Amino acid sequence: MKIINENLSNLKKLVQTKTQQLTDLKVEATVRDIITDVIQNGDAALRQYEAKFDGVAPKQFKLDAAVIDDAYANLDPDVKAALQLAKRNITSFHEKEKATGFIDAEQPGVLRGQKLLPLKRVGLYVPGGTAAYPSTLLMSALPAKIAGVEQVIMVTPPQKDGINPAVLAAAKLAGVDAIYQVGGAQAIAALAYGTESIPAVDKIIGPGNIYVATAKKQVFGQVAIDMVAGPSEIGIIADDSADPRQLAADLLSQAEHDRRARPILITDSQKLAQAVSDNVTSQLKVLPRTEIATQAVDEKGFIAVVDQVEDMFDLMNTVAPEHLEIQLRDPTQYLNLIRNAGSVFLGKYASEPLGDYVAGPNHILPTSGTARFSSPLGVYDFVKRTSFIQYTKDALAREASAITTLARVEGLEGHARAIESRFDTYYD
Protein backbone atom coordinates (compact mmCIF):
# COMPACT_ATOMS: atom_id res chain seq x y z
CA MET A 1 0.00 0.00 0.00
CA LYS A 2 1.57 3.25 -1.07
CA ILE A 3 2.79 5.68 1.56
CA ILE A 4 2.63 9.39 0.81
CA ASN A 5 4.71 12.04 2.54
CA GLU A 6 3.46 15.41 1.32
CA ASN A 7 2.47 18.70 2.85
CA LEU A 8 -1.13 19.07 3.98
CA SER A 9 -2.15 21.22 1.02
CA ASN A 10 -0.95 18.66 -1.54
CA LEU A 11 -2.58 15.82 0.39
CA LYS A 12 -5.93 17.63 0.29
CA LYS A 13 -5.63 18.01 -3.48
CA LEU A 14 -4.90 14.30 -3.79
CA VAL A 15 -7.91 13.41 -1.67
CA GLN A 16 -10.24 15.62 -3.68
CA THR A 17 -9.01 14.09 -6.94
CA LYS A 18 -9.61 10.56 -5.70
CA THR A 19 -13.08 11.48 -4.41
CA GLN A 20 -14.41 12.80 -7.71
CA GLN A 21 -17.10 10.59 -9.25
CA LEU A 22 -17.34 11.07 -13.00
CA THR A 23 -20.61 10.54 -14.86
CA ASP A 24 -20.55 7.55 -17.22
CA LEU A 25 -22.56 8.79 -20.20
CA LYS A 26 -22.91 5.30 -21.69
CA VAL A 27 -24.39 3.97 -18.45
CA GLU A 28 -26.68 7.01 -18.21
CA ALA A 29 -28.03 6.35 -21.72
CA THR A 30 -28.49 2.61 -21.12
CA VAL A 31 -30.36 3.21 -17.88
CA ARG A 32 -32.57 5.86 -19.46
CA ASP A 33 -33.60 3.38 -22.16
CA ILE A 34 -34.35 0.68 -19.57
CA ILE A 35 -36.52 3.04 -17.51
CA THR A 36 -38.45 4.14 -20.60
CA ASP A 37 -39.00 0.51 -21.62
CA VAL A 38 -40.33 -0.43 -18.18
CA ILE A 39 -42.67 2.58 -18.15
CA GLN A 40 -44.05 1.60 -21.55
CA ASN A 41 -44.07 -2.20 -21.31
CA GLY A 42 -44.22 -3.03 -17.59
CA ASP A 43 -43.82 -6.69 -16.63
CA ALA A 44 -42.90 -7.73 -20.17
CA ALA A 45 -39.88 -5.45 -20.08
CA LEU A 46 -38.90 -6.75 -16.64
CA ARG A 47 -38.94 -10.37 -17.86
CA GLN A 48 -36.81 -9.47 -20.86
CA TYR A 49 -34.17 -7.73 -18.74
CA GLU A 50 -34.09 -10.44 -16.07
CA ALA A 51 -33.43 -13.08 -18.72
CA LYS A 52 -30.76 -10.89 -20.29
CA PHE A 53 -28.92 -9.64 -17.20
CA ASP A 54 -29.57 -12.24 -14.49
CA GLY A 55 -30.13 -15.32 -16.66
CA VAL A 56 -33.38 -16.03 -14.82
CA ALA A 57 -36.90 -15.11 -15.92
CA PRO A 58 -39.21 -15.93 -12.98
CA LYS A 59 -42.75 -17.06 -13.83
CA GLN A 60 -44.04 -14.63 -11.24
CA PHE A 61 -42.16 -11.74 -9.68
CA LYS A 62 -43.75 -11.88 -6.24
CA LEU A 63 -42.23 -14.53 -4.04
CA ASP A 64 -44.65 -16.87 -2.27
CA ALA A 65 -44.90 -16.32 1.48
CA ALA A 66 -44.39 -20.06 1.98
CA VAL A 67 -40.91 -19.83 0.46
CA ILE A 68 -39.98 -17.04 2.90
CA ASP A 69 -41.41 -18.93 5.88
CA ASP A 70 -39.54 -22.08 4.88
CA ALA A 71 -36.23 -20.20 4.58
CA TYR A 72 -36.67 -18.78 8.08
CA ALA A 73 -37.71 -22.10 9.62
CA ASN A 74 -34.74 -23.96 8.17
CA LEU A 75 -32.08 -21.30 8.61
CA ASP A 76 -28.89 -22.30 10.39
CA PRO A 77 -29.49 -21.58 14.11
CA ASP A 78 -26.28 -19.56 14.46
CA VAL A 79 -27.23 -17.35 11.50
CA LYS A 80 -30.74 -16.91 12.89
CA ALA A 81 -29.38 -15.95 16.30
CA ALA A 82 -26.98 -13.43 14.73
CA LEU A 83 -29.82 -11.84 12.74
CA GLN A 84 -32.00 -11.67 15.85
CA LEU A 85 -29.19 -9.95 17.79
CA ALA A 86 -28.72 -7.49 14.95
CA LYS A 87 -32.46 -6.78 14.87
CA ARG A 88 -32.56 -6.08 18.62
CA ASN A 89 -29.65 -3.66 18.49
CA ILE A 90 -30.77 -1.91 15.31
CA THR A 91 -34.27 -1.52 16.74
CA SER A 92 -33.11 -0.22 20.12
CA PHE A 93 -30.88 2.38 18.44
CA HIS A 94 -33.41 3.60 15.88
CA GLU A 95 -36.30 3.73 18.35
CA LYS A 96 -34.45 6.68 19.88
CA GLU A 97 -34.63 8.55 16.58
CA LYS A 98 -38.42 8.80 16.59
CA ALA A 99 -39.67 12.38 16.70
CA THR A 100 -43.02 14.04 17.23
CA GLY A 101 -44.62 17.14 15.84
CA PHE A 102 -45.32 20.29 17.83
CA ILE A 103 -47.99 22.94 18.42
CA ASP A 104 -47.10 26.56 19.07
CA ALA A 105 -49.85 28.75 20.60
CA GLU A 106 -47.64 31.38 22.20
CA GLN A 107 -49.03 34.37 20.29
CA PRO A 108 -52.63 35.51 20.93
CA GLY A 109 -54.97 34.20 18.23
CA VAL A 110 -52.25 32.25 16.44
CA LEU A 111 -51.95 28.49 16.21
CA ARG A 112 -48.96 27.05 14.40
CA GLY A 113 -47.57 23.58 14.29
CA GLN A 114 -46.06 20.66 12.50
CA LYS A 115 -47.26 17.09 12.14
CA LEU A 116 -45.09 14.12 11.18
CA LEU A 117 -46.52 11.44 8.92
CA PRO A 118 -44.89 8.19 7.80
CA LEU A 119 -44.54 7.47 4.10
CA LYS A 120 -47.19 5.10 2.77
CA ARG A 121 -45.03 2.69 0.74
CA VAL A 122 -41.25 2.25 0.57
CA GLY A 123 -39.20 0.07 -1.76
CA LEU A 124 -35.99 -1.62 -0.62
CA TYR A 125 -33.35 -2.63 -3.13
CA VAL A 126 -31.28 -5.57 -1.87
CA PRO A 127 -28.29 -6.48 -4.08
CA GLY A 128 -27.71 -10.03 -5.28
CA GLY A 129 -24.81 -11.21 -7.40
CA THR A 130 -21.46 -11.95 -5.80
CA ALA A 131 -22.60 -11.41 -2.21
CA ALA A 132 -25.81 -11.53 -0.17
CA TYR A 133 -26.52 -8.76 2.33
CA PRO A 134 -29.16 -9.68 4.92
CA SER A 135 -27.63 -7.02 7.17
CA THR A 136 -28.47 -4.29 4.64
CA LEU A 137 -32.06 -5.50 4.54
CA LEU A 138 -32.36 -5.16 8.32
CA MET A 139 -30.76 -1.71 8.19
CA SER A 140 -33.26 -0.61 5.54
CA ALA A 141 -36.50 -2.20 6.67
CA LEU A 142 -36.38 -1.81 10.44
CA PRO A 143 -36.14 2.03 10.53
CA ALA A 144 -39.01 2.16 8.02
CA LYS A 145 -41.17 -0.06 10.21
CA ILE A 146 -40.26 1.94 13.32
CA ALA A 147 -41.29 5.11 11.47
CA GLY A 148 -44.71 3.56 10.77
CA VAL A 149 -44.45 3.00 7.01
CA GLU A 150 -47.61 1.21 5.93
CA GLN A 151 -46.04 -1.09 3.34
CA VAL A 152 -42.39 -2.07 2.90
CA ILE A 153 -41.65 -4.02 -0.27
CA MET A 154 -38.36 -5.47 -1.39
CA VAL A 155 -36.80 -6.13 -4.77
CA THR A 156 -33.75 -8.32 -5.30
CA PRO A 157 -32.26 -10.02 -8.37
CA PRO A 158 -33.55 -13.57 -8.99
CA GLN A 159 -31.03 -16.36 -8.54
CA LYS A 160 -30.87 -19.66 -10.42
CA ASP A 161 -30.66 -21.53 -7.10
CA GLY A 162 -33.14 -19.26 -5.33
CA ILE A 163 -32.66 -16.15 -3.22
CA ASN A 164 -30.23 -16.55 -0.33
CA PRO A 165 -32.13 -18.01 2.67
CA ALA A 166 -30.47 -15.55 5.08
CA VAL A 167 -31.83 -12.65 3.03
CA LEU A 168 -35.33 -14.13 3.09
CA ALA A 169 -35.08 -14.77 6.82
CA ALA A 170 -33.94 -11.19 7.43
CA ALA A 171 -36.92 -9.96 5.41
CA LYS A 172 -39.29 -11.95 7.60
CA LEU A 173 -37.60 -10.74 10.79
CA ALA A 174 -37.79 -7.13 9.65
CA GLY A 175 -41.46 -7.32 8.68
CA VAL A 176 -41.08 -6.84 4.92
CA ASP A 177 -44.55 -7.06 3.37
CA ALA A 178 -43.67 -8.45 -0.07
CA ILE A 179 -40.60 -9.59 -2.01
CA TYR A 180 -40.24 -9.27 -5.78
CA GLN A 181 -37.62 -11.11 -7.82
CA VAL A 182 -36.27 -8.36 -10.02
CA GLY A 183 -32.97 -6.49 -9.95
CA GLY A 184 -30.90 -3.86 -11.68
CA ALA A 185 -32.06 -0.58 -13.18
CA GLN A 186 -35.30 -2.29 -14.24
CA ALA A 187 -36.20 -2.91 -10.59
CA ILE A 188 -35.68 0.75 -9.75
CA ALA A 189 -37.91 1.74 -12.68
CA ALA A 190 -40.60 -0.67 -11.51
CA LEU A 191 -40.54 0.76 -7.99
CA ALA A 192 -40.67 4.32 -9.28
CA TYR A 193 -43.45 3.94 -11.86
CA GLY A 194 -45.15 0.64 -11.02
CA THR A 195 -45.97 -2.29 -13.31
CA GLU A 196 -48.80 -4.81 -13.48
CA SER A 197 -47.13 -6.80 -10.67
CA ILE A 198 -45.11 -4.29 -8.68
CA PRO A 199 -46.72 -1.25 -7.02
CA ALA A 200 -45.13 2.18 -7.25
CA VAL A 201 -43.54 3.42 -4.04
CA ASP A 202 -42.91 6.81 -2.45
CA LYS A 203 -39.22 6.28 -1.71
CA ILE A 204 -36.46 3.87 -2.79
CA ILE A 205 -33.78 2.77 -0.34
CA GLY A 206 -30.70 0.61 -0.68
CA PRO A 207 -27.34 0.27 -2.44
CA GLY A 208 -26.54 -1.35 -5.76
CA ASN A 209 -24.13 -1.33 -8.67
CA ILE A 210 -23.53 1.62 -10.99
CA TYR A 211 -26.68 0.85 -13.00
CA VAL A 212 -28.83 0.79 -9.87
CA ALA A 213 -27.25 4.00 -8.56
CA THR A 214 -27.74 5.72 -11.92
CA ALA A 215 -31.36 4.58 -12.12
CA LYS A 216 -32.05 5.95 -8.64
CA LYS A 217 -30.59 9.27 -9.71
CA GLN A 218 -32.74 9.36 -12.85
CA VAL A 219 -36.04 8.52 -11.11
CA PHE A 220 -35.45 11.04 -8.32
CA GLY A 221 -38.32 13.51 -8.47
CA GLN A 222 -40.81 10.86 -9.46
CA VAL A 223 -39.95 9.26 -6.11
CA ALA A 224 -37.62 10.10 -3.24
CA ILE A 225 -34.36 8.19 -2.80
CA ASP A 226 -32.02 7.76 0.13
CA MET A 227 -28.82 8.66 -1.73
CA VAL A 228 -26.79 7.85 -4.82
CA ALA A 229 -24.37 5.48 -3.16
CA GLY A 230 -20.78 5.28 -4.32
CA PRO A 231 -18.14 2.66 -3.54
CA SER A 232 -17.40 1.68 0.07
CA GLU A 233 -14.89 3.75 2.04
CA ILE A 234 -12.92 3.49 5.24
CA GLY A 235 -10.73 6.15 6.76
CA ILE A 236 -8.53 5.41 9.76
CA ILE A 237 -6.72 7.91 11.95
CA ALA A 238 -4.05 6.16 14.04
CA ASP A 239 -0.94 6.81 16.08
CA ASP A 240 1.87 4.48 17.13
CA SER A 241 -0.30 2.93 19.86
CA ALA A 242 -2.36 1.13 17.20
CA ASP A 243 -1.77 -2.45 16.05
CA PRO A 244 -0.65 -2.47 12.37
CA ARG A 245 -2.07 -5.96 11.81
CA GLN A 246 -5.51 -4.82 12.98
CA LEU A 247 -5.34 -1.62 10.93
CA ALA A 248 -4.50 -3.59 7.79
CA ALA A 249 -7.37 -5.99 8.42
CA ASP A 250 -9.79 -3.10 8.89
CA LEU A 251 -8.65 -1.42 5.69
CA LEU A 252 -9.18 -4.63 3.75
CA SER A 253 -12.61 -5.15 5.30
CA GLN A 254 -13.84 -2.38 3.00
CA ALA A 255 -11.43 -2.89 0.11
CA GLU A 256 -12.92 -6.35 -0.49
CA HIS A 257 -16.35 -4.80 -1.21
CA ASP A 258 -15.57 -3.16 -4.52
CA ARG A 259 -12.69 -2.57 -6.94
CA ARG A 260 -13.41 1.17 -6.55
CA ALA A 261 -13.51 1.10 -2.72
CA ARG A 262 -11.32 3.62 -0.87
CA PRO A 263 -9.16 2.43 2.05
CA ILE A 264 -7.22 5.34 3.62
CA LEU A 265 -4.99 5.55 6.68
CA ILE A 266 -3.70 8.84 8.09
CA THR A 267 -1.02 8.72 10.76
CA ASP A 268 1.79 10.75 12.28
CA SER A 269 4.06 7.70 12.51
CA GLN A 270 6.27 6.70 9.59
CA LYS A 271 7.05 3.42 11.34
CA LEU A 272 3.36 2.56 11.71
CA ALA A 273 2.71 3.50 8.07
CA GLN A 274 5.35 1.07 6.84
CA ALA A 275 4.15 -1.71 9.15
CA VAL A 276 0.56 -1.32 7.97
CA SER A 277 1.64 -1.30 4.34
CA ASP A 278 3.59 -4.53 4.86
CA ASN A 279 0.62 -6.13 6.64
CA VAL A 280 -1.77 -5.16 3.85
CA THR A 281 0.54 -6.87 1.36
CA SER A 282 0.77 -10.07 3.37
CA GLN A 283 -2.94 -10.21 4.23
CA LEU A 284 -3.96 -9.68 0.61
CA LYS A 285 -2.22 -12.93 -0.31
CA VAL A 286 -4.64 -14.97 1.80
CA LEU A 287 -7.83 -12.92 1.36
CA PRO A 288 -10.48 -14.82 -0.64
CA ARG A 289 -11.55 -11.65 -2.51
CA THR A 290 -7.94 -10.69 -3.11
CA GLU A 291 -8.36 -9.59 -6.73
CA ILE A 292 -11.06 -7.08 -5.85
CA ALA A 293 -9.29 -5.82 -2.73
CA THR A 294 -5.90 -5.54 -4.45
CA GLN A 295 -7.31 -3.31 -7.18
CA ALA A 296 -9.01 -1.08 -4.60
CA VAL A 297 -5.80 -0.79 -2.56
CA ASP A 298 -3.64 -0.07 -5.62
CA GLU A 299 -5.93 2.43 -7.33
CA LYS A 300 -7.82 4.16 -4.52
CA GLY A 301 -5.94 3.41 -1.30
CA PHE A 302 -3.04 5.18 0.34
CA ILE A 303 -1.38 5.90 3.67
CA ALA A 304 -0.69 9.56 4.42
CA VAL A 305 1.93 10.59 6.98
CA VAL A 306 1.39 14.04 8.52
CA ASP A 307 3.09 16.01 11.28
CA GLN A 308 0.45 16.30 14.01
CA VAL A 309 -2.93 15.07 15.22
CA GLU A 310 -4.78 18.21 14.13
CA ASP A 311 -3.53 17.68 10.57
CA MET A 312 -4.85 14.11 10.62
CA PHE A 313 -8.36 15.34 11.34
CA ASP A 314 -8.09 18.28 8.96
CA LEU A 315 -7.21 15.93 6.12
CA MET A 316 -9.80 13.30 7.08
CA ASN A 317 -12.52 15.94 7.21
CA THR A 318 -11.63 16.64 3.58
CA VAL A 319 -11.98 12.94 2.80
CA ALA A 320 -15.39 12.87 4.59
CA PRO A 321 -15.33 9.06 4.72
CA GLU A 322 -18.27 6.71 4.93
CA HIS A 323 -16.61 4.93 7.90
CA LEU A 324 -14.05 6.56 10.19
CA GLU A 325 -12.00 4.69 12.77
CA ILE A 326 -10.15 6.67 15.45
CA GLN A 327 -7.35 4.49 16.79
CA LEU A 328 -5.55 6.95 19.02
CA ARG A 329 -4.84 6.95 22.73
CA ASP A 330 -8.09 8.00 24.44
CA PRO A 331 -10.01 8.38 21.15
CA THR A 332 -13.16 9.94 22.66
CA GLN A 333 -11.30 13.19 23.40
CA TYR A 334 -11.05 13.81 19.65
CA LEU A 335 -14.78 13.63 18.83
CA ASN A 336 -14.96 17.42 18.66
CA LEU A 337 -12.40 17.41 15.81
CA ILE A 338 -14.60 15.23 13.60
CA ARG A 339 -16.76 17.24 11.25
CA ASN A 340 -17.37 15.01 8.22
CA ALA A 341 -17.94 11.26 8.56
CA GLY A 342 -20.83 8.86 8.07
CA SER A 343 -20.17 6.71 11.12
CA VAL A 344 -17.35 6.88 13.67
CA PHE A 345 -15.66 3.94 15.41
CA LEU A 346 -13.72 4.73 18.56
CA GLY A 347 -10.84 2.60 19.78
CA LYS A 348 -9.23 -0.70 18.83
CA TYR A 349 -12.27 -2.83 19.65
CA ALA A 350 -14.69 -0.82 17.52
CA SER A 351 -13.64 -2.43 14.25
CA GLU A 352 -15.70 -1.27 11.27
CA PRO A 353 -17.55 -4.61 10.72
CA LEU A 354 -19.06 -4.14 14.19
CA GLY A 355 -21.10 -1.32 12.67
CA ASP A 356 -21.89 -3.32 9.55
CA TYR A 357 -23.72 -5.99 11.49
CA VAL A 358 -24.77 -5.76 15.11
CA ALA A 359 -23.91 -2.50 16.91
CA GLY A 360 -27.19 -0.81 15.94
CA PRO A 361 -26.36 2.47 14.14
CA ASN A 362 -27.25 2.27 10.48
CA HIS A 363 -24.66 1.07 8.00
CA ILE A 364 -26.31 2.77 5.00
CA LEU A 365 -24.06 5.82 5.01
CA PRO A 366 -23.07 8.76 2.82
CA THR A 367 -20.17 8.00 0.45
CA SER A 368 -17.94 9.83 -2.04
CA GLY A 369 -17.44 12.80 0.26
CA THR A 370 -21.17 13.41 0.72
CA ALA A 371 -20.80 13.09 4.50
CA ARG A 372 -20.07 16.82 4.23
CA PHE A 373 -23.83 17.35 3.90
CA SER A 374 -25.57 13.97 4.33
CA SER A 375 -26.46 11.67 7.22
CA PRO A 376 -26.80 7.94 7.83
CA LEU A 377 -30.14 6.35 7.00
CA GLY A 378 -32.57 6.64 9.90
CA VAL A 379 -36.18 6.77 11.00
CA TYR A 380 -36.27 10.42 9.92
CA ASP A 381 -35.85 9.26 6.29
CA PHE A 382 -39.25 7.60 6.35
CA VAL A 383 -41.40 10.46 7.59
CA LYS A 384 -42.55 13.69 6.03
CA ARG A 385 -43.43 16.94 7.79
CA THR A 386 -46.56 18.98 7.21
CA SER A 387 -47.00 22.38 8.83
CA PHE A 388 -50.33 23.96 9.79
CA ILE A 389 -51.47 27.50 10.62
CA GLN A 390 -54.60 29.02 12.13
CA TYR A 391 -55.13 32.78 12.75
CA THR A 392 -58.04 34.68 14.24
CA LYS A 393 -59.17 37.87 12.51
CA ASP A 394 -57.48 40.04 15.12
CA ALA A 395 -54.22 38.11 14.77
CA LEU A 396 -54.29 38.45 11.00
CA ALA A 397 -55.04 42.18 11.33
CA ARG A 398 -51.86 42.67 13.34
CA GLU A 399 -49.74 41.34 10.48
CA ALA A 400 -51.84 42.18 7.42
CA SER A 401 -49.88 45.33 6.57
CA ALA A 402 -46.57 43.47 6.56
CA ILE A 403 -48.03 40.76 4.32
CA THR A 404 -49.47 43.16 1.77
CA THR A 405 -46.29 45.26 1.78
CA LEU A 406 -44.11 42.25 0.97
CA ALA A 407 -46.58 40.95 -1.60
CA ARG A 408 -46.51 44.24 -3.51
CA VAL A 409 -42.70 44.44 -3.28
CA GLU A 410 -42.70 41.08 -5.08
CA GLY A 411 -45.24 42.28 -7.65
CA LEU A 412 -47.93 39.87 -6.48
CA GLU A 413 -51.01 42.03 -6.19
CA GLY A 414 -53.31 39.02 -5.94
CA HIS A 415 -51.53 37.95 -2.76
CA ALA A 416 -52.13 41.35 -1.20
CA ARG A 417 -55.79 41.43 -2.22
CA ALA A 418 -56.37 37.94 -0.78
CA ILE A 419 -55.41 39.34 2.64
CA GLU A 420 -57.33 42.60 2.20
CA SER A 421 -60.47 40.66 1.25
CA ARG A 422 -60.74 39.71 4.93
CA PHE A 423 -61.04 43.39 5.92
CA ASP A 424 -62.84 46.59 4.95
CA THR A 425 -59.75 47.83 3.07
CA TYR A 426 -60.52 45.51 0.13
CA TYR A 427 -62.20 47.03 -2.97
CA ASP A 428 -63.36 45.21 -6.12
From TrEMBL:
Pathway as given in its UniProt record: Amino-acid biosynthesis; L-histidine biosynthesis; L-histidine from 5-phospho-alpha-D-ribose 1-diphosphate: step 9/9
Co-factor binding details: Binds 1 zinc ion per subunit.
EC number(s) stated in the UniProt entry for this protein: 1.1.1.23
Keyword Nucleus annotated: no
Coiled-coil segments: 1-28
UniProt-listed SUPFAM superfamilies: ALDH-like (SSF53720)
Necessary cofactors: Zn(2+)
Full protein name: Histidinol dehydrogenase
Organism: Lactiplantibacillus xiangfangensis
